[in-house]
Amino acid sequence: PFQLLEIIRKEDVVLRAILTTHHHWDHARGNEELARLCPGLRVFGADQRIGALTDTVTHGQELTFGAIRVRCLFTPCHTSGHMCYFMWEDDSPDAPALFSGDTLFVGGCGQFFEGTAEQMYTNLTQILGALPKDTKVFCGHECTVRNLKFALKVEPENEMVKEKLAWAKQRDDEDLPTVPSTLQEEFLYNPFLRVMEEPVQRFTGQTDPVEVLRMLRTERDNFKKPKERPNPPAMLAFDWGLFSPFLEKK
């Protein structure tokens, strides 16, 4: 929360509200502290497990913050109370934005912790997939390279996957973000949005789109990281016992 408050100070804006996608600590853990430091702060979300929640929102509900308009999109699956937020400004030349939490990622989708493949299929096709194609996708994590490596396994001949993966690796090497993408782009390389495509169906051995999605998620969950060579200086330091004082303190 203190990093966020420093950004707010530099940008010379006032924090009025927090839109929380779901209750997991890596998305909501700063809520209580921010609420303590900013009296009157409103915290929006769809799950009572969200810290410092003040306003419960529902699917299709619209909120307004100055010129910013927000449509709440209920996408249960990763958690039973997951909410995405679609934002735009009337008469603005800028593309709308989707804050998709852990439902839709660049090149991937969230794990089905508290839901089903049927729910995720609805989320990706009828709810998020139906948004304007120029919508910018701001997801909750930078796992683009990993997602696209799996996408390449699913569709090894997909040139868009190859190009996006090369781009993402370069961005990663330069410590630059790969987020946002656009919804239009996602339909070209994200296997979870391509369940009707023949190569994706062939990879899963399924043709029913829900079953294709279910199999994709299972395969993605079992997709192993390639073994990385240990860092030689670090290994030497470990062998020489240079880490011992830190390990003993723990």
UniProtKB/TrEMBL annotation:
InterPro entries: Clx_II_MBL, HAGH_C, Hydroxyacylglutathione_Hdrlase, Metallo-B-lactamas, RibonucZ/Hydroxyglut_hydro. SMART domains: Lactamase_B. Keywords: Hydrolase, Metal-binding, Zinc. It comes from the Eukaryota. GO terms for biological process: methylglyoxal catabolic process to D-lactate via S-lactoyl-glutathione. GO terms for molecular function: hydroxyacylglutathione hydrolase activity; metal ion binding. Residues 2-141 form the Metallo-beta-lactamase domain. Its cofactor is Zn(2+). Belongs to the metallo-beta-lactamase superfamily. Glyoxalase II family. NCBIfam families: GSH_gloB (TIGR03413). This is HAGHL protein. It comes from Cephalopterus ornatus (Amazonian umbrellabird).
